[in-house]
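Q&A log
Question type: sequence-to-structure
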Amino acid sequence: MTAAADASLPPLPDLFGNPLLRGELHEVLSPGTIDWLPQTLGWKLSAALVLLWLGRSLWRRGRTWLRNRYRREAQRRLMALGPAASVTAVNEILKIAAMTAASRREVASLTGADWCQWLRARTDPDIFSDGSLSALGNAPYDPDFALPAHCLPDLLDEARRWLAQHRDDHGPT
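Response status: OK
Response body:
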């Protein structure tokens, strides 16, 4: 375009173009970020109570887990005996676990029928069969005692169940 062509154009009117772009245009501001932390005292107290409850639950679980170490160790020893287990070895493992669950003074002197009665009294159901209790009561003191081979797996299973279910005098299980 030349200067002659520019001179022939009429002047622009005052209302020409987009009126929003003339003068007082303000940029739209976005709102501020939303804080995700609780703002009121009630939420903070609720969070504190939940954290206290969670901490107490974890502490109690840890204490119970530590308290039941002897059960896990006795179970491991029973598993290590395997099919070549003797009644005396099973009885020894049960006696060690019983002394941990109750007290040495209460359990160490128990023998024969008293030991069997104590074992039965520590669980709700009757876990041990009469044959197993007879074996546990008599085998350590009778060198001629022999448990039939087919009864040994039952004795090991009953001993495992007793270890898992017996009452512990020192705390919750």
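Response note: Residues 69-165 form one domain.
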